[in-house]
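Changelog-linked ticket: zinc ion example.
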Amino acid sequence: MRLSVSRQLPRLPRRGIAGAAIALAGLVATAAPAATAPAPAAPSTAATAAVSPAAALAPPDIPLANVKAHLTQLQSIASANGGNRAHGRPGYRASLDYLKAKLDAAGYTTSVQSFSYGGATGYNLIADWPGGDPNQVLMAGAHLDSVSSGAGINDNGSGSAAVLETALAVSRTGFQSGKHLRFGWWGAEEQGLVGSRYYVNNLPAAERSKFSGYLNFDMIGSPNPGYFVYDDDVQLEKVFKDYFAGLGVPTEIETEGDGRSDHASFKNAGIRVGGLFTGAGRTKTAAQAQKWGGTAGQAFDRCYHSSCDTTANINDTALDRNSDAVAHAIWTLGAGSVPPGDSYENTADVAIPDNGAAVTSTVTVSGRTGNAPPTLSVGVDIRHTWRGDLVIDLLAPDGTAYRLKNSSGNDSADDVIATYTVNASTEPANGDWKLRVQDVGPQDTGYINSWKLTF
Ligand code: DTR
Ligand code: CA
Ligand code: ZN
Ligand code: ZN
């Protein structure tokens, strides 16, 4: 005797799958369509809501002359303060004050974070551009300090100036990013990523989880340049590779510095990172000289950590290309035109008819290479009222169905908020993946609250 109980489905507060996921890692669906229960009828009302990327606005050209003017200022400030911008020396704080004044005048909300290291006070400069989704923070940064032997114009005036000028371009153009834009300049990187680690370690966990990515720019104007892209994150790497491909400039993955610059502080905290590098003390090979020009058998930067790292130690083409790449990344990622990392989510509610036809919700996966993994994670968040006899399938772009959940008759469980693992290694990753849900028993109303694929 079934209770004829029905209740209005409360519009429960949306909660992220991750926040309440129950990992059912032991469940690995096989490649063959499920045989345990008749596959539900093809959805008559395929309620799909593909998440399509917002149109990306064209990023502005970053004027090389503006970037070089900042380098000239940094050179002058170092020359007037003992010849450097090193941690604990007057040239560092004087340089930070120069950047802060520019950012304040451009309408940024700036803050200076101080920390102690080696008996001296260090400072980080943080600049927030008002607006954007506070739960999706896109940050670009560079270390502002130099070694004590010189003005550090390539290491790392180049990254500092390019990030500064990109931030100023955001203001000049009034760019309204979908994500909240934040820029940072770090102290005491040369002492071992001290400033950036202090910043990340002092972020509350809830704040750290809001980062959609951190982009690092440390040495991007080397006089004998290479074009290296950080390969820590597939999506962020792709943004930069696509940019350089558009220029017809080949790139290599950055291998000299894994962990050797401020992106490591963010990566160690689980934040996705990307960035660019034009080389330091390593020697350019003949093959690299063939594709990039410059001098084989010579270091990418012969003045690395030396007093000759002055405004004369910059390759203008490299600095210009990389400065424009910073803007390209901010405008592209900021506009939300690149899926957030390896996860693809649909948050559109889709009603599930009581004892009725199956419905579907779609996520469009693009920009990946190869097949899906044998451990494709499928997070679902389905709300329903009572006797939820739900059958849940994942449909690959070619229509292959992977059974995630069978109806369990009198399934009196409440919401289905779970993470399933599917072996989808025979399926190409890109395409329209669908979550298909059918309620095969009466007395129930429900809806797909959200669902997420993570590769
Ligand atoms: N640690 C940086 C220089 C450096 C050396 N290798 C890499 C790779 C990626 C970024 C930076 C670097 C410094 O001396 O500031
Ligand atoms: Ca430019
Ligand atoms: Zn250095
Ligand atoms: Zn550096």
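Closing comment: Example verified and attached. The chain has two domains: 53-335, 343-454. Confidence is low (pLDDT under 50) at residues 1-56.
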